[in-house]
Amino acid sequence: MRDLNRVAVRARDVVLGYGSLTAIRRSSFEIPFGSLTAVIGPNGSGKSTLLNAIAGLVTPISGSIEVAVPPKRIAYVMQSTKVPEALPVSVVEVVTMGRYAAAGPYRRLTAEDRKAVHDAMDRMGITDLAHRHISKLSGGQRQRAFVAQGLAQDHDILLLDEPLTGIDLTTASAIDDVIHKEIESGCAVVMTTHDLTEAAVAGQVILVSGGVIACGSPDEVLTTENLRRAYGPALLHAGEEHVFLDDPAHFPVQE
Hints:
The protein is α/β, with parallel strands linked by helices. It has one domain (about 5-245): Rossmann fold (3-Layer(aba) Sandwich). About 30% of the residues lie in helices and about 25% in strands. The chain has helices spanning about 45-55, 90-95, 100-105, 110-125, 140-150, 170-185, 195-200, 220, 225-230; strands at about 5-20, 20-30, 35-40, 60-65, 75, 155-160, 190-195, 205-210, 210-215, 235-240, 245. Strands 5-6-7-3-8-9 form a six-stranded mixed sheet, with helices on both faces. Strands 2-1-4 form a three-stranded antiparallel sheet, with helices on one face. The chain has a two-stranded antiparallel ribbon with strand order 10-11. The longest helix is centred in the C-terminal third of the chain and has 16 residues, at about 170-185.
């Protein structure tokens, strides 16, 4: 169902918010299949709200968002996923939850389900952690488990909310490899980030700050003028070749 002329998501004059609070003012943008779209902007700019709307978790106040696939074909890896210490959930059980999207939690696992779970864990390098309690993992291991959950789901769109924030280099490398393979398979990958370096290597960038400032190639979007509009006083210095932002820098950390 990858139609809409290879467009995975099309928004037209969409306004997004929660109750009386507007998070994204009237904006239009498109997200293609077979590419990485980086959504970048300062804290509180509406990046996560945009992902929530694509996933169908937020209903537009006005305007429209067309998504080329049904919600069950959208895998969403949220930024903060906490598991209660008392909940006895293992890594393999967390990844298996990715199979519930299409068939629900009460159907017996098929051979196809088990293979999808195994393959997702193998891709993220966590097969040896299968029976470890999720709460006992390091931050990077836990992030790999939840990305594996998304991969285990049958999907055409993969949403990643700041997947590279505060993680170790091994996890960052594994996630980067997954993103490239997903793109090669024709999947639309949408990733929020604070890092201009990450955005600069994406196929497309959506710059947001209470609304979509610009949408297009990195060269078209990450201009000094656009960044000034988005970050305001947080833009400390802008030269012809370098831009410095007074905004949290989320670099991988050693595990």
